[in-house]
Amino acid sequence: MSKSLRGGEAPPLEATRVETRGIDLVGDEERHGRARDLFSVWAAPNVSVLNFTVGATLTLLLGLEIWQALLVIVASQLLWIFPGIIAVSGPAAGTSGSVIQRAIYGIRGNRIVIAFFGWFISGVFLALNWVASSFMGAELMVRWGFPNHTAALVIVSIVVSAITVLVAVYGHGMIIRAYGYITIALAIVFILVTLFVGPSLDWGFTQPEPLSGLPLWSSITIGFAILASTPLSYSNSADLARYLPRSTKPSSIILATSLGGAIPSILFVGVGALLGSAVSADDVSLGIEYVLLDMLPVWLGPLFVLAVIVNTVALNGMTTYTASMALQSIGIPIKRVPSAVVIGVLGTIFTMVLVLSTSLLGAVNLMLQFLLIISAPTMAVYAADIILRRNRYDGIELFDERPGAPFWYHAGYGWTGLTAAVAGGIASALFISTDLWTGPLAVSVGHLDLSAPAGMLVSAIWYVIGFRITRRSVAS
Fold it and tell me: How many CB atoms lie within 10 A of CB 158?
């Protein structure tokens, strides 16, 4: 195995040292860590103010009762099992998920999928999360006397973006070492916020006009779609697990990843649902963060804003880190560190557009629903491939890009995977229900948003059937 594949010249991973390895294979002698380290890697990004915002949507805008909202929250977060399944492919292959998916889409086909989902969509997600911290940071600056709100938005966005890129540059070592402490600090601040806003919540809340029948199920399915988009977007989980020893139990990886994402999401989206029952739509037209700042004591407000910014850095630092490898996997001759900078610049540009032209609540809900058209099918296909192959991936074969190589397939395209993803995306689009556009099948079933289950089921079934047919034809 060549050093270029193994990355044998890469320095040891330390929190204070820049990680130079990109998609190169991680040798067995360089494997380290425990599966439980992944819990904080996924918990830190999900102790988020966006959980409050999305939770408020369920009761404030969708009209669900508290108990209905809580059931939707728990059901949607069960989908964290999928990032857990995806994560096990990292130690098995010893490389990035953006490379592992060559086994699904082929050498050339994978470049198309990763170029869009692993790179462009990553930039969109960076912006979506930077928007939250930008709004809050700018609001605090204005309250402290800064004269121009727009300038404050730009300043906060640029500063947070720069710190985020720095985390991505230092890479895996910093993420593993620092995120445990970040998780504890964020949990303390968010729990304090919950305790202080608790007396203001209407614990006996009921909707003035309770929903029933199709309107109720429409709200339930739309809420599920919004919440499902978060766990289904993390197809990068293999990147964070790839340094684990090959002998690490897959069940431990799945458990640590799934619980790390699900526990804080269930807790703080639930708090958001309660917040939605105690405020008006006008109060949160620009985002629930403004309401929260008014409900907190003077000393806790700045801590909360700082926690939101730290959470944003944690989430986007991880996203930028994995997206920097996506650029390499599609064949662009760029090292990982400058690649991370390019991703950061892209996300910053998207952030500038969002913070200057839209509200946080509207941006979050609309973006999360539409991203399901891409994330749900690709996540389902990736998980199906892992199960069908029994998580057996040959890292050397994944890097063989010659015609006739194991993953060259038909002229470089894995049509089974590509058509499965497209079919799932079409199914999701047909069943999506948003204020901007509703799919014809969603209309026919009373505006139920079945985009997530439709996209996942269609793509997974299509891929399983195609995979088995292809295997049988090759064997004969």
Answer: 15
| Tokens 């804080």 found at | 264
Cα radius of gyration (the chain): 22
Tell me the sheet residues that pair with 410.
413
CA atoms within 13 A on the CB side of 212: 3
Which value, to the nearest 10 degrees, does the dihedral of the CA atoms of residues 309, 311, 314, 317 take?
-50
Q: Which amino acid is at 341?
A: V
Find the Cα–Cα–Cα–Cα dihedral 177, 180, 182, 188, rounded to 10°. -160
- Name the β-bridge partners of 433: 438
Structural tokens at position 179: 């995120």
Look up residue 271 and give its two tokens: 């708090």
Mean pLDDT by 10-residue block, N- to C-terminus, for the chain (476 residues)?
A: 46 65 88 93 91 90 94 97 98 95 96 78 70 80 87 86 88 90 96 92 88 95 93 92 95 98 96 88 68 88 91 88 84 82 78 62 62 92 97 95 94 96 96 86 93 97 95 65
Contact 3, 29 (CB under 8 A): no
* Secondary structure element (H or E) that encloses residue 28, with its range: none
Q: How far apart are CA 120 and CA 469, in angstroms?
A: 33
pLDDT at 371: 82
Domain assignment present for 446: yes
**Angle at 20 (CA atoms; ends 19, 24), nearest 5 degrees:** 110
Residue-by-residue DSSP string for 332-389: ----HHHHHHHHHHHHHHHHHHHHTT--HHHHHHHHHHHHHHHHHHHHHHHHHHHHHT
3-state helix, strand, coil in the chain (%, to 5): 70, 0, 25
Q: What is the CATH number of the domain that holds 387?
A: 1.10.4160.10
- Measured between alpha carbons, how far is 178 from 135 in angstroms, rounded to an integer? 25
In-domain check, residue 24:
no
Q: Using CA atoms, how far apart are residues 110 and 93, in angstroms rounded to an integer?
A: 16
The secondary element (H helix, E strand) that includes residue 26 is none
Domain boundaries, position 323: 33-475
The predicted structure's pLDDT at residue 94: 94
Q: How far apart are CA 294 and CA 143, in angstroms?
A: 11
Strand positions, DSSP E, 11-145: none
Longest Cα–Cα distance in the chain: 75
Q: Model's pTM, two decimal places?
A: 0.90
CA angle 431, 437, 441 (to 5 degrees): 25
Q: How far is CA 122 from CA 97, 114, 119, 162, 306, in A?
A: 14, 10, 5, 16, 23
* Closest to 64 in 3D by CA, of 272, 233, 243, 265: 272
Q: Is the CB of residue 76 less than 8 Å from the CB of residue 228? A: yes
Q: Would 10 be classed as within a structural domain?
A: no
- Number of domains present in the structure of the chain: 1
